[in-house]
């Protein structure tokens, strides 16, 4: 796991697991008796069933992450491009802010989820705007202002101060004390956190009977939690100049979800607020997280009950300010617009899908869009480039050599040759030869036919006039420089073989340079490669040398016959 990543409760995964809890054990349900004590930390049977569903989501989500580690799926994270991750996390942060609005306003409202639930929440708020609690709203605004102001000052003067003011902790203590002594819960009707059980429950297997019903949420927790945590880990790794193993992150977060689920913990992931605090305090290793975990145990066993009086509006303010980093990713839109309009459109559409449906749906949409974009761009990218003879590491000295090399055309293969771009490869080669042929229109009629033979072979056309077979010294030669052909499949190898055989029938010699052994084997297996010249060469220069030697020999033979 990243050295500076602190694991804990994460708002995005908590929202996903909350969907499963409300769906299976709704808070408004009457099938459970809230007064029946379960004997675990003084919680009722109803509360334990709700917690059990969240623990089951955590358990199954962790199992999925461990399975992804075993399948080495961390290598597939290249599909999670920066625009997709940025849009998904920004949209998920918007969902979290929306879920906290009712606490900021002090409103009572039913749990709303599902597709387009984001808009239904705000519709409900505007319909019941008169029920806003003024005291909660003022306290929320004051808390947000204090949090933002102090955090900005901490960041601005962090080099000049040795101890960073933990404003979140100070605000929690101050507002809890004020609420207790001013009796705000009863006088002003402020909603407070309420009873917090002391200690940890005895380890117990999460309810297995609900696993089949929380598969969707478990996958959401596994993917969204991993992506957000990986983005945070890679950011810290880039900042402090070390590397992160993408696959190892699956195992780390998987175990962080499986083991705590036996103690009825909700799904966890990288906590942005705690991670930022580690940055500011100069933490360098995971020992800082170990110390933090020990302090949390102290809070659970001793200080937890004292947080009974913490106003929910203050807690919501802390959560929203903690998401400031994610919400500020809206500024990335300008960067994407200036660099790549397609990435900009992927960001916007992924964000829209995320807020309209859910974070996991938005993530899936973004990945699909990325794959479709890559396929579209790859199939349209230029595959070939006509090389100038001066670019080749070959020096010819005599005018005869210069004249004979005019019949040699060198084409460089720039991209992998697979089924996606095989046809584009054929079209690009045709265009290159066509452009080269039109530049030499001042030749004689018979020479025109010979110069256009290669073009005719690809367009299935035929030259007009007398069909003459060129002499060995006048045969055209096409050299394919395959140094840039890093990958090929059966379709690509078949296309190369088809080009070779077609040119051979039209009295055009095709030579291949810088070929990998696998490509040579594939083409030899696919067809007969007999030619006046050897077909495969180590370099373009060696291919040209072979052409010169063969043509000089042919001229000598012709002169001898005369």
From TrEMBL:
Q: Which Gene3D superfamilies match?
A: STAS domain (3.30.750.24)
GO CC list: apical plasma membrane; basolateral plasma membrane; lateral plasma membrane; recycling endosome membrane
Q: How does it sit in the membrane?
A: Multi-pass membrane protein
Q: Which UniProt keywords apply?
A: Anion exchange, Cell membrane, Endosome, Ion transport, Membrane, Transmembrane, Transmembrane helix, Transport
Q: Which residues form the STAS domain?
A: 398-547
Q: PROSITE patterns this protein is in?
A: STAS
Q: What protein is this chain from?
A: Anion exchange transporter
Signal peptide positions on this chain: none
Q: Which CDD domains match?
A: STAS_SulP_like_sulfate_transporter
């Amino acid at each position: 796991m990243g050295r500076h990543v602190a694991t804990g409760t994460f708002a995005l995964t908590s929202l996903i697991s909350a969907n499963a809890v409300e769906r299976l054990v709704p808070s408004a349900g009457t099938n459970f008796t809230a007064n029946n004590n379960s004997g675990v930390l003084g919680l009722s049977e109803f509360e334990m069933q709700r917690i059990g569903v969240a623990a089951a989501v955590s358990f199954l989500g962790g199992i999925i992450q461990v399975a992804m580690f075993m399948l080495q799926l961390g290598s597939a994270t290249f599909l999670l491009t920066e625009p997709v991750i940025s849009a998904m996390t920004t949209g998920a942060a918007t969902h979290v802010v929306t879920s906290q609005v009712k606490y900021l306003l002090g409103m009572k409202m039913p749990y709303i989820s599902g597709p387009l639930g984001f808009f239904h929440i705000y519709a409900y708020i505007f319909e019941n705007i008169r029920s806003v609690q003024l005291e909660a709203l003022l306290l929320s605004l004051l808390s947000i202002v204090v949090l933002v102001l102090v955090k900005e000052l901490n960041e601005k003067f962090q080099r000049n101060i040795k101890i960073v003011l933990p404003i979140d902790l100070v605000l929690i203590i101050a507002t809890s004390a004020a609420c207790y002594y001013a009796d705000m819960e009863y006088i002003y009707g402020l909603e407070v956190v309420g009873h917090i059980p002391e200690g940890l429950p005895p380890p117990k297997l999460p309810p297995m009977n609900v696993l089949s019903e929380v598969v969707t949420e478990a996958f959401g927790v596994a993917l969204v939690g991993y992506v957000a945590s990986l983005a945070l880990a890679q950011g810290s790794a880039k900042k402090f100049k070390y590397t992160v193993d993408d696959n190892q992150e699956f195992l780390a977060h998987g175990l962080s979800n499986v083991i705590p689920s036996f103690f009825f913990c909700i799904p966890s992931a990288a906590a942005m607020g705690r991670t930022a605090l580690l940055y500011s305090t100069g933490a360098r290793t995971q020992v800082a997280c170990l110390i933090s975990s020990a302090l949390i145990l102290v809070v659970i066993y001793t200080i937890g009950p004292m947080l009974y009086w913490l106003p929910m509006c203050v807690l919501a303010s802390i959560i929203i300010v903690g998401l400031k980093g994610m919400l500020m990713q809206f500024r990335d839109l300008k960067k994407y617009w200036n660099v790549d309009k397609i990435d900009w459109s992927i960001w916007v559409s992924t964000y829209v899908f995320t807020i309209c449906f859910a974070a996991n749906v938005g993530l899936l949409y973004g990945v699909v869009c990325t794959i479709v974009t890559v396929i579209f761009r790859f199939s349209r990218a230029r595959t070939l480039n006509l090389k100038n003879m001066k670019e080749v590491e070959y020096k010819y000295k005599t005018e005869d050599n210069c004249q004979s090399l005019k019949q040699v055309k060198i084409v460089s293969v720039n991209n992998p040759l697979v089924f996606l771009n095989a046809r584009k490869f054929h079209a690009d080669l045709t265009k290159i030869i066509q452009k080269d042929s039109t530049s030499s229109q001042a030749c004689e009629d018979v020479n025109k036919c010979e110069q256009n033979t290669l073009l005719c072979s690809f367009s299935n056309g035929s030259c007009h006039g007398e069909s003459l077979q060129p002499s060995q010294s006048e045969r055209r030669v096409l050299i394919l420089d395959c140094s840039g052909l890093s990958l090929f499949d059966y379709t690509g190898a078949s296309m190369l073989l088809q080009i070779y055989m077609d040119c051979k029938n039209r009295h055009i010699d095709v030579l291949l340079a810088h070929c990998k052994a696998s490509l040579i084997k594939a083409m030899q297996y696919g067809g007969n490669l007999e030619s006046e010249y050897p077909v495969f060469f180590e370099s373009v220069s060696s291919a040209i040398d072979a052409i010169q030697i063969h043509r000089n020999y042919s001229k000598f033979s012709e002169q001898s016959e005369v």
